[in-house]
Design goal:
Length: 246
């Protein structure tokens, strides 16, 4: 059996032609697709690494800002607590001084009336003054700031009959009266407490005679909410007690 070189040559030629066709239409496009895909994967990985690095940097910055914010908040709270304690001490000292004046006046009256056999009446009046003075001091809100007194003012307004409350709030010259100029934060807190009653933008004035407190006044009435008012009640109680026993 002889080998057919012509047939072999033709088959070899066909193989070479097939390889050329596959190289042109299959291998090269597939290689290009694989190369592009690899490039896309590398680019996506680089983008992911960049995004991860940025996210880590942003997280670190956020944690740093959160730490600074927490420190600032703690400083503000500590300052507010110190100011509230100082204010409470000042108010207590002032109220004690005013109460002492009333008690001393009651004692003087007792001494004058002792000659007429009515010292016992003034003794009871003095005891009443001391009791009311102690109540005036123990009745301070916590903290004794405009915001603290605003809570008590809101409670008193809410407890009023609706008609009386509406008449007061609709009266002319509706004004909040404070004993001292409240700080910006204290005033904002007080207005937030009174906002449900429509007093978020009420005018505010300062009257040091209140000693401490926050009162509401209009042309149709007033809500007394101060140490000065409590001390006035002491004097009235003394006068009533004296008048009923003379």
């Amino acid at each position: 059996m002889s080998f057919d070189w012509v047939t072999f040559g033709l088959q070899l030629f066909n193989v070479l032609v097939l390889l050329a066709i596959l190289q042109h239409f299959l291998f090269r496009p597939v290689a290009d697709i694989i190369a592009r895909r690899q490039a896309e994967i590398v680019a996506a990985k680089d983008a992911a690494d960049t995004a991860q690095a940025r996210a880590a940097a942003a997280e670190a910055m956020a944690q740093d800002e959160a730490g600074k914010t927490a420190m600032a908040r703690n400083d503000v709270l500590a300052t507010a607590q110190l100011e509230a304690e100082q204010l409470r001490a000042t108010l207590v000292a002032t109220a004690h001084s005013e109460a002492s004046k009333i008690v001393d006046d009651a004692r003087s009256k007792a001494a004058r009336i002792a000659a007429d056999g009515q010292a016992d009446t003034l003794r009871r009046a003095r005891e009443l003054a001391e009791t009311i003075a102690e109540k005036a001091l123990s009745d301070l809100p916590d903290p004794p700031t405009a915001a603290g007194f605003a809570k008590r003012l809101a409670a008193e307004l809410s407890a009023m009959p609706e008609g009386k409350r509406e008449a007061l709030l609709s009266g002319a010259n509706l004004t909040l009266i404070a004993a001292h100029p409240p700080g910006e934060q204290d005033l904002a807190s007080a207005r937030a407490v009174l906002a449900p009653l429509g007093l978020h933008d009420a005018a505010i004035e300062v009257d040091p005679a209140l000693i401490a407190g926050l009162e509401l006044r209009s042309a149709t009435g007033a809500v007394f909410n101060s140490i000065a008012h409590n001390l006035r009640r002491i004097s009235e109680a003394l006068d009533d007690d004296n008048g009923s026993r003379t």
